Amino acid sequence: MLSRAVADGAATERVRTEDGGAGSAARGARVLAGLGRGRAWFRSFRRTRPFWGGVWLVAGGWTVLKFSLAPMRLVVSTGFDGIAGYLLGGGMILSGLVPLAAPQQRYTFGIIGAVLAVVSLVASNLGGFLLGMVLGVLGGSMMVGWGPKRPARRERRTAARSGSGSGEAA
């Protein structure tokens, strides 16, 4: 009897191991499918917004903000010179993030971000020791220059032919 119980236990353990392996493979497939969907969503998001301009403008704003951090007592006692780094860096970060949510505002916030970056040269530690200013101007100009992705040339030709063909028939 004892040998039979041991054999049944071993068989049950083999079944559990095989089922666990199948469950693990299915779970891995679901994770990979989820990652694929997430990557496709991010690619679509990135291509429909001035993503890289926003990234560079936020990086420039963070640099200006980082190089102007000081204790609050010093910031308050120095007046605008102390607060300028916070205002300019925060404004550059905000100017980089808003067009990601509302791409139609890219011109306005791209220009505002570039102007804040240039002003930071004078008002805040040489614009984050020139690095923040350069990143901010680069990001602002990329935002202004960005445009929605146009359809491929082949698709435009097909659309033009079908549009002209239907116009002739009418």
UniProtKB/TrEMBL annotation:
Region (Disordered): 1-22, 148-170
UniProt KW keywords: Membrane, Transmembrane, Transmembrane helix
InterPro entries: DUF6114
Low complexity compositional bias, start-end: 160-170
Residues annotated as transmembrane: 51-71, 83-100, 107-123, 129-147
N-terminal signal peptide: none
Keyword Ligase: no
Superkingdom in the source lineage: Bacteria
Name of the protein in question: Integral membrane protein
Organism, as annotated: Streptomyces odorifer
Lineage of the species this protein comes from: Bacteria, Bacillati, Actinomycetota, Actinomycetes, Kitasatosporales
